[in-house]
Amino acid sequence: xxxxxxxxxxxxxxxxxxxxxxxxxxxxxxxxxxxxxxxxxxxxxxxxxxxxxxxxxxxxxxxxxxxxxxxxxxxxxxxxxxxxxxxxxxxxxxxxxxxxxxxxxxxxxxxxxxxxxxxxxxxxxxxxxxxxxxxxxxxxxxxxxxxxxxxxxxxxxxxxxxxxxxxxxxxxxxxxxxxxxxxxxxxxxxxxxxxxxxxxxxxxxxxxxxxxxxxxxxxxxxxxxxxxxxxxxxxxxxxxxxxxxxxxxxxxxxxxxxxxxxxxxxxxxxxxxxxxxxxxxxxxxxxxxxxxxxxxxxxxxxxxxxxxxxxxxxxxxxxxxxxxxxxxxxxxxxxxxxxxx
Length: 341
What we know:
- By secondary structure, the protein is α+β, with helices and mostly antiparallel strands.
- The chain has one domain (15-163, 227-335): Bira Bifunctional Protein, Domain 2 (BirA Bifunctional Protein, domain 2), CATH 3.30.930.10.
- 36% of the residues lie in helices and 20% in strands.
- It is built from nine helices and 13 strands.
- The protein has helices spanning 15-41, 81-89, 127-145, 168-176, 187-196, 207-219, 274-292, 300-306, 319-327; strands spanning 45-46, 52-53, 66-69, 72-76, 94-102, 114-123, 150-152, 155-157, 164-167, 229-232, 254-259, 262-269, 312-318.
- The strands form three sheets. The protein has an eight-stranded mixed β-sheet, sandwiched between helices. The protein has a three-stranded antiparallel β-sheet with strand order 2-4-3, with no helix packed on it.
- Helix 2 packs across helix 8 (300-306).
């Protein structure tokens, strides 16, 4: 299936361009139906949370769209996470949603400012259970789209294969020659490794900046090649909404799922301590204010609900990216019915 011309060549409603994209869009519908059926067969309830929120999330580098409503500042949500966790507190035990979400400044082959996030939660399970869910959905999507392989930019992945499970520390050791956990309190040590690897180091880069640059340039391109990769046990400072790992509190019960070097999903064993969650949010917002001269409010209602939320694990999966790989598209706009202007 060929990809359509670049978005600048013609509007999405141009008949020729739409005809080129029509196969991808049909595959999207099949994948969507198959995903819904998979969750419903396992006793999940589909939710439909509101898109307006008092806080769009409290991650330092997250950029949201703000709106004014009756003199109040609200935001288009960047994830249904806060609302869905409130539903867990209300008594729901297995929920999923195909949510429209919005993130400012995200545009490119793998990014769109408005996109669909598949998010689901299971109460009373460890993170391994939702890791298995995420891996199973690769085969669901591949079967629905009629795909033998996932392929992107010359990299291939067998979506039905047993995923490799690799810790973040193991990935840094393998692909960077870095003992990552030994650098957790030593920004300069990580900077020295980055310099050795030819990765740019800015004078004002903190540890998290260097971690992000190393993982995106030296680790991610090697993940999910041949078979999926479940990257596990992120440093606790890189997992603002995840609980600490029971065996090693330096890392969190967080994972990401990769195919063809593309991140598809981000999952947590969920943090349910409202005091610790507030502390982490405030740290993130201090960084945001220092970097971008703005901060987002904390959703007090979310923290109140967190105290009543059961132990749970959840995942956010980029549905458009999943369809893109399953359908053989080259960029995310290929699989959006009406790409963003």
